[in-house]
Prior knowledge:
2 domains
Amino acid sequence: MLDKKGLEQRLLMQSAGLMGLLAISGTIMGIITGSSAILLDGMTAFIGVIIKMMMIGTSKLIAHETSKRFQFGYFQFEPLVLVLEGSFTLLIVIYALSSGITDLLAGGRIINVGLAIGYALFFTLADTFYIIYVRRINKKLKSNLVKFDNMSWSVDVMLEAAILVSFLLAWGLSFTDWAPYARYIDPVVLIVLSIQMLPTSLKILIPSLKQILGVAPKLYHNRIQIVMDDFMKRYKFEDYVSSVQAYGNVKIIEIDILIPTDYPEQSIESFDRIRNEIDDAIGGPASEKWLTITFTATKRWMAKDYLLEEEEDLFV
């Protein structure tokens, strides 16, 4: 049987180790070569190491499920860590964009192109192979933390590849009459990379922020509604209210079912059988689902209903 939490933690540890190597190398090479683009890569990696260590801690907490202090579990820590990652990445992108514009207006930057090319080539290949390796494993693992961690590696591959191509161009220009313009390559690369990184940082930040704010996942909500509409007809319930919230891979589901006072099924065993049928119909691993189903003949004990026909808000 696949030890999901153990494998998840090993992948995150590997990721932190490789990111640590990248952080040290990027910072040193950025200073030696005089390249702001490579220095940006190193700075991003240092923040990445901190975030990955937080991810490992979160993965270990979630494996414990509950405690006396956190009686509903540690699920909420996962989107919180991802919000921090997305926020830090966004801040670096904004800083890098402003630095690139400043360097460009100041007349460019002279860099050691040979060392920069060697650095970019090595880490472009290393990062690409690592992404392919993790993506293949995560097809079975289906870890939300690993998925978003791999997205951050995709950002880094874009950085490395763009640095490689651009500095190869700068090296080529040095043999032509366009050599004076090679000094503008580094700030231009920095600006382009910043713009490229922006969508990825938002893809990490926005979904995680939705989870922290408690926005119901639309597709999963619709799935629960379809299941419960079928059970309404089958068991002649009077009404129901379902509430769904997501924290990473874990879905919190609450279903309140209204039954008539003279409902034919009255025993605890009968209600448990219906609960099991609803659980099976919803599907999904038990470890990724917190399901509560209640039966009542009094409407005031049901959760407050919401307007199903309300217009979509900006979070959905």
